[in-house]
Amino acid sequence: MLDARTVDGFVYRVDMRLRPYGSSGALALNFASFEDYFYTQGREWERFAMIKARAITGLPADRAYLIEKIVQPFVYRRYPDYSSFEALREMKRLIKSEVHRKGGEQNIKLGNGGIREIEFIAQATQLIYGGRDQRLQDTGLQSVYSTLAEAEYLPGEWVKTLLETYRYLRDMEHGIQGFKDQQTQLLPQDQTAQSALVAAMQEDSWEVMIARMSDLRANVTAVFEDFLHEEGDASADQTESDYHWLQLWLDQDVTAEDWQAEFLRAGFDEPELCTKALMDLHELPRFRQMSASARDRFKEFLPRLLDTITESGACALTLERVLKVVQSVLGRTIYLVLLNENAEALRQLCKLCAESQWFADHIAATPVVLDDLLDPKSLYSPPPREALSDELRQSLLRIPEDDLEAQMDCLRNFKQSHMLRVAAAEISDVLPVMKVSDYLTWLAEACVEAAMEIAWRNLVQKHGYPSAKGRAIEPVDCAGFAVVGYGKLGGIELGYSSDLDMVFIYNAEDFGSTDGDKQINNQLFYTRLGQRLVHILGAQTTQGYCYEVDMRLRPSGNSGMLVSSLAAFEKYQHNDAWTWEHQALVRARFIAGDSALGGEFDRVRQDVLCKQRDLTDLLAEVAGMRQKMRLAAVDKLKSQEIADQNIKQGRGGLIDIEFITQYLILAYAQDYPELVRWTDNVRLLESLAATVDVPLEFAVLIDAYRALRSALHRKSLSGVSYPGGLNGFAKEREQVQRAFAELFKE
């Protein structure tokens, strides 16, 4: 009825060719058949087409199911999908061929720099990132371009150029089609139609209009070619070396000796290791089971990889490490497309893997961080502290509040991405070791804060807000709840593999209840909040875990309540805590939650640390605890000699410096309360140096602490212990041992 022609014309032209199986398919399919088609026979160009799909009739529930459960999962992939570039190039080639065959160079939609290229750029970017950023799941072209510019997926100048041209060409298209109600995008050839179009476009003349249109389309063509990383045909980038490596790979009769000879010719330092790494990959069952398209991607990738490593020093170890990353993505070769499409990303991957095994392990465990290699400027420049929480918050805003799994994956991807960036900055000497620990601590705090807010909103939605002092707590995130960081987290000294030592405190009436439909008492509410927070951070998902959480430093350890009331925490610290627990409190710091409660924790901490103490008993208890730790280290490492050389646990190592610091704080804070202001060892030692009169060289201890911390960081990144362990720091070790012996009378 819509497109039937009568004496009065027709209502709309109707095109049904986009249905499953095209013109040969049934006009109507049930949902199951529709879904089956997408997942068994859906083609890449159909993903582009379905970006604009919108249900316009039917029951609301059916319309939502069709789009959200069938169409969108087909269009948008969970991981960045760089195969869109391949599909885009292929569609562009087909369109060019068709335009050329039909003599349609004057087509403002399909020709170079036309409407279709503008649509393609937006759609390809939507397909790449839309699965991860739901703001891009938008059917409107102009609105999605605004998002692409705002979120910096595309340069702002590109978007400005594309939208200006799009609006001009769409106006022109309307003028062309409105002249005689024809479905065409070809520029008119007769003078009457040309004059009508000039008038519709409000231009001075045909020549002026064509000149402006040509300039705009030329700008679009330039953007389009930059977007595809090509000038003309992408295959032009293939070199003679690429072809040679590929021929060798495809040769069924090639031997290990042939590969070794080729690696030797190319200048690789260990041809045997290179050959073994490549052959081991080839023999993997996952490699042999790859689809034809995945094999094609690898065939394109391998020559590029070998050439890139050759250009950067032909190191066999680099090849071995990069191939470890490749093994991890054999089931998701879309990441190979990313590296094929972005030579700079491949160069950065090879550079980082050449520097350290840590990068190969990190990227292999979380391939999604390959996306961070696209921009070297940001890769080696982690954002400032204040930008971290904002960036994470913006990422979480793109996810529905009821999708906990996606929120947890977002936290993990965010953490792994920024950990890669800070490691890259450290390995390039952009950040010194102390700044690295600062940054890793800020990153953890941002993740803890976000996880806590997710857990809070989830519980409040179910149970309502808890009450305090006979009134409802103000409806703000995490009111009455505080997270206290201990250990390296509290001391702002996190490393790449550090877990999070935390204690949870709440401040509400134990017998009060929440104000929601499913009421529970306050204590249970905050206990569940703590449990959920630990789960969000520590549970294993498809993206791994965010952080391992250690709650053993809470009052009474593993046998104590997961969450303590402020009153119970204060009472425990004053009456029941061991001296080693007060040592731990020296490094404790409020990191997230209710800031007013954080202030109350600071008060309790100061009161406890500034207590009057018998210095003889204190000295004996701290020294006794250190001896227990030394014995435990020997038992764990199975050797006295190995324990003695351990940079952290050995005599003259990091723990000795920490015990010196903690003893002096507990001994002198009663007279100098300002000593407890800081929680990190360096500033604690600096405060002691400026305040107390003891025969210790604090500057020497600070230098030794920094040197040993730096060695531990290098070990984390390289995977190799410092040669000789503590023996490699003979001077520092001797100075720390002397200070420890003098203080503890050893």
Structure report:
This protein is mainly α. The chain folds into four domains: 76-231, Nucleotidyltransferases  domain 2 (Four Helix Bundle (Hemerythrin (Met), subunit A), Up-down Bundle), CATH 1.20.120.330; 238-379, Four Helix Bundle (Hemerythrin (Met), subunit A) (Up-down Bundle); 404-607, 2-Layer Sandwich (Beta Polymerase, domain 2), CATH 3.30.460.10; 615-744, Nucleotidyltransferases  domain 2 (Four Helix Bundle (Hemerythrin (Met), subunit A), Up-down Bundle), CATH 1.20.120.330. It has helices spanning 31-41, 44-50, 60-75, 83-101, 115-129, 141-150, 156-180, 191-201, 206-227, 240-250, 256-265, 271-283, 285-288, 292-311, 316-328, 334-341, 343-355, 357-365, 376-379, 385-397, 404-427, 433-463, 487-490, 522-538, 566-575, 579-586, 595-609, 615-637, 640-645, 654-668, 681-691, 698-718, 730-744, and strands at 467-468, 471-472, 481-486, 500-506, 549-550, 563-565, 589-593. Strands 3, 4, 5, 6 and 7 form a five-stranded mixed β-sheet that branches. Helix 24 links the parallel strand 4 and strand 5. Helix 7 (156-180) packs across helix 8 and helix 15 (316-328) packs parallel to helix 18 (357-365). Residues 230-237 have low confidence and may be disordered.
Summarize the structure.
By secondary structure, the protein is mainly α.
Going by helix content, strand content and strand pairing, the class is mainly alpha
Taking the sheet with the most strands, its summary is: 5 strands, mixed
How many distinct domains? 4
The mean pLDDT is 88
Portion in beta strands: under 5%
Could you name the CATH class of the largest domain?
Answer: Alpha Beta
Here the CATH topology of the largest domain equals Beta Polymerase, domain 2
DSSP helical segment count: 33
Q: Could you say which overall geometry the principal axes of the C-alpha atoms support?
A: globular
